[in-house]
From TrEMBL:
InterPro entries in alphabetical order: HD/PDEase_dom (IPR003607), HD_domain (IPR006674), MESH1 (IPR052194)
Needed co-factor(s): Mn(2+)
Name under which the protein is recorded: Guanosine-3',5'-bis(diphosphate) 3'-pyrophosphohydrolase MESH1
Family under the similarity heading: Belongs to the MESH1 family.
EC annotation from Swiss-Prot or TrEMBL: 3.1.7.2
């Protein structure tokens, strides 16, 4: 759910984002090195996605989605693993920006790079093929990648419930909810809280059609 704007840039208040990361880290009792890693990941994601916005009418800066995914992991999913949270902040950099897996590995380590790779679609493939591969591959992913995928799906579904993306009709909305249900079915047993939250938002919206 991303597109590039015609604007030269999107102003991101990095100081505010960094303060948010520090506050979250204090609650989770992260080490100083963990805090630095998360701030680095947040800044990197904000810079790489600076020309991108979400598809809602408000054209929300894309970094909001990435922080939202990380926040879901920590505040709802109970995730305290720094690598997983950093990967959540970076999970769309390979797929949606000119960032390579090697670059992520060099800057953030092999583990985080691997998680991000698992969460990335191959944009050279058609949308239909990519969606089918998400269903087929979800169950084979690592536990940490599955956590990021659950939080990503939950944030996207809540966004879709809150505001219809520009150009979407009811049929496309229904299709997205149905497809998400298939993907999440392959992630069962990863995190009961996140899975229940996803089931709730899907069922609440599918009954409208």
């Amino acid at each position: 759910m991303v597109h590039e704007t015609d604007f030269e840039d999107i102003t991101i208040n990095l100081d505010k984002l960094n303060s948010l990361i520090v506050s979250m880290a204090e609650v989770l009792f992260f080490t100083g090195m963990d805090v630095l890693l998360l701030i680095k990941a947040c800044n990197f994601a904000a810079e790489r996605h600076s020309l991108q916005r979400r598809k809602d009418v408000q054209q929300t800066p894309y970094i909001n989605h990435l922080i939202g995914v990380a926040n879901i992991l920590t505040s709802e999913g109970g995730v305290t693993d720094c690598a997983t949270i950093a990967a959540a902040l970076l999970h769309d950099t390979i797929e949606d920006t000119a960032t390579s897996s090697q670059e992520i590995a060099e800057l953030f380590g092999e583990e985080i790079s691997q998680i991000v790779q698992e969460c990335s679609d191959d944009k050279s493939l058609s949308s239909q093929v990519r969606k089918q591969l998400q269903i087929e591959n979800a169950a084979t992913h690592s536990f940490k990648a599955k956590l990021v995928q659950l939080a990503d799906k939950l944030h996207n579904l809540r966004d879709l419930e809150r505001a219809t993306p520009v150009g979407w009709n009811s049929a496309r909305i229904k299709e997205y909810f149905l497809w998400s249900k298939l993907v999440v079915s392959q992630l069962k047993g990863t995190n009961e809280v996140l899975e229940a939250a996803i089931d709730d938002v899907i069922n609440r919206n599918l009954c409208k059609f």
